[in-house]
Amino acid sequence: MTAPPTRPSSIAELRRVAQPPEVRSRANAEHWTASLYLRDLSPYLTWLLLKTSVTANGVTGLMILTGWATAAALLIPGAGGAALALVLGQLQMLVDCCDGEVARWRGASSPAGVFLDKVGHYTTEALIPIALGLRAAGLPFDAPSDYLWTTLGFALALVIVLNKSLNDMVHVARAHAGLTRLEDKRGGVTTPSSRVLSRLRSAARFVPFHRLYHSVELTILAFAVSIVGLVVGQPIADRVFLSILMPLALLALVGHFVAIMASKRVRS
Q: For residue 91, what pLDDT band results from cuts at 50, 70 and 90?
């Protein structure tokens, strides 16, 4: 098979190569914003990126920096900072779509790209709750009373990272056991063998609080809370928000662990 030219001749050609059906149909790797509208926009940005010498890993580096900027924006007090974080969070996901598209067009997919992508999402989704803790403390904050909120932010970051790492732990465990790689699709080995757990998993789709801890959802909620804060006061709204997120994150972590152990994902 001959390699595609350096630049696509049309957006349609770019979509055909960079957005194959196996990418668009992924159950977990594709965020809902990608399916909703980002995959419609990303080829236009990818088109521009392909006119430069930037590599796919370079685009991933840009995604990482955009994610860090998203968290940093939350340190700006009030609704302005939250609004900027909301926009940057969407931009991060757009660039996240483009790095894979650049890699597929140029045939440059690599383990390094996957690793950098993980670094981007793990660090961003750890920094955002830390920033939320600082917002709740009300910069500049008083010691030691406001340390409760900064500590809660760091604790939430830890729980979120642990929850994210469970999926990677499954892949590592299967690789060490010599099992095949899990396909990114719904059902199959991911379905809990217990009927009770299966029903609870189905019920969670109607109240998907376990999906609140992605950077996109966190920034959307942070913006909504900042609007509420204009009425009730910013520190109060942010503190209630953080106090709700923490127990739900612990519940999501425990539920995720139980669901993995009850499924065939870690069964030989």
A: very high
